[in-house]
Amino acid sequence: MADTSYEVARARNPKWANPEKNMIDMEVDFSPLDEEWLAYTASPTDSTVEHSRYLYTQAINGAYGDIGDYVHHQLWTPWFEDKTEVSNEGLVQLLLEKGILTDAEVDTILVEKTEFQGFSRPATDAQSHNGGAYFGST
């Protein structure tokens, strides 16, 4: 496989790309490209581009300054919010038990509503899946 290579005008801010310290992240200004600074990860074993091996060697030799420590990226963490809620049914039951509401009054304050949950449609392969009755079964 033929090497592809860009001419490196300059590089800066090298830091280890992984805890094994076998790749280096840095910002590179490649001469033929319009962008001035591009994030780049250099590897000494990259067999497809010569400039990757060149940049890695130069960084190891200190040409772009000291190589910064590897910093593990911040992982997503679940976020929870604690809430305390009283169901309407529970509140009505409590008010009934305490004698604050009568059965007749309960009928006037209860409201039934329909909430949109999503879309559904009948299965098109009813013979093999019984209209989805076996959904999730193995």
Overview of the molecule:
This protein is of the alpha+beta class and 138 residues long. Among the domains are: 8-60, no CATH class; 86-118, no CATH class. The chain contains four helices and three strands; from the N terminus they run βββαααα. The protein has a three-stranded antiparallel sheet with strand order 1-2-3. A hairpin with a 7-residue loop joins strand 1 and strand 2 (24-30). 9% of the residues are buried. The mean pLDDT is 84.
Based on the model shown, name its key terms.
138 residues; alpha+beta; three-stranded antiparallel β-sheet
Topology summary:
Elements: E1 8-16, E2 24-30, E3 38-42, H1 50-60, H2 88-97, H3 103-109, H4 126-129
Antiparallel strand pairs: 1-2, 2-3
